[in-house]
From TrEMBL:
Residues 180-237 form the tRNA pseudouridylate synthase B C-terminal domain. The keyword Electron transport does not apply. GO terms for biological process: mRNA pseudouridine synthesis; tRNA pseudouridine synthesis. Its EC number is 5.4.99.25. This is tRNA pseudouridine synthase B. Gene3D superfamilies: Pseudouridine synthase, PUA domain. One of its GO terms (molecular function) is tRNA pseudouridine(55) synthase activity. HAMAP family: TruB_bact.
Length: 297
């Protein structure tokens, strides 16, 4: 007889250190089962070959997961020069090999071209869609379509190590940046080709990998101890200013009504006492409009 899984309400944010070889959705479902969480979502995928920080949202925190999609990301990456693959990473087939003849000085000079605002063509092996179909589906059929270059920003680009035909980079970048494309473009700039061999995400907005936990670590804990790894839903909103309402104004806010407050315009996290009510937006007239409101506990 099969015992049906019992799900329960869990509200919070889990900073998961995703292993390589696992899809983001598989990691999400594994964590969801460990917490028996009725509702769960993630805030942007990591490729199966990539490891590192994958913020997971449970319950009411899922209402704010979209805010992390726009956050800056930081990665540590290893590149192999002299070999280009059809996917831009180590999972692909080799399509070109060239000798590596440059040194550290030439590499440093090439890196300067990719610091700051740049235009980047998304890879064919990506989840971007063309006529409703992901590009990676077309790529697997041998179909390549023209992609429009997109503006992204490389805020910081550090050379951590360089030896013969390999280098390690630390990249802080805006949303929508493809590190595989950065690897390929850097290889093209050095006239030898390159592909990504290791990718690890170490930060998403203000969230850091040092505060993350692995699935194996969670599985080894008792259920009560796992809860200690959950952050409150407002962990995703710490970059926004806080607005505090009295009880009466708080009730109006959670019922979808605007309230008047004295605070600078813009998005904000809204509290009554110590309780998070949701996400609001202030206009120039001081009206606080509810944007996402938490349900009753």
């Amino acid at each position: 007889m099969t015992v049906r899984k019992s799900w329960r309400r869990v509200d919070g944010v889990l900073l998961l250190d995703k292993p390589t070889g696992m899809s983001s959705n598989s990691a999400l479902q594994a964590a969801r089962r460990l917490f028996s969480a009725a509702k769960a979502g993630h805030s942007g995928t990591l490729d199966p070959m990539a490891s590192g920080l994958l913020p997971l949202c449970f319950g009411e925190a899922t209402k704010f997961s979209v805010d992390l999609l726009a956050a800056d990301k930081t990665y540590e990456a290893e590149l192999l020069f002299g070999i280009r693959t059809d996917t831009g990473d180590a999972d692909g087939m080799v399509v070109m090999q060239s000798p590596v003849t440059f040194g550290r000085a030439e590499l440093e000079a090439a890196l300067n071209r990719f610091r700051g605002p740049i235009l980047q063509i998304p890879p064919m092996y990506s989840a971007l869609k063309r006529n409703g179909r992901p590009l990676y589906e077309l790529a697997r059929q041998g179909i390549e379509v023209e992609r429009e270059a997109r503006a992204v920003t490389i805020h910081e680009l550090w050379l951590l190590d360089f030896s013969q035909d390999r280098c390690r980079l630390r990249v802080a970048c805006s949303k929508g940046t493809y590190i595989r494309s950065l690897a390929e473009d850097l290889g093209a700039a050095l006239a030898c080709g390159a592909h990504l061999t290791v990718l690890r995400r170490v930060a998403v907005g203000p969230l850091r990998i040092i505060d993350a936990v692995t699935l194996d670590q969670l599985a080894a804990l008792a259920e009560e101890a796992r809860a200690d790894w959950l952050l409150p839903p407002d962990a995703l909103l710490q970059s926004l200013p806080a607005v505090h309402l009295d009880h009466a104004a708080g009730r109006r806010f959670v019922h979808g009504n605007p309230v008047c407050v004295v605070s600078p315009p813009g998005r904000c996290r809204v509290y009554s006492g110590n309780q998070l009510l949701g996400l609001g937006e202030l206009d120039d007239a001081g009206r606080l409009q509810p944007r996402r409101v938490l349900g009753a506990p």
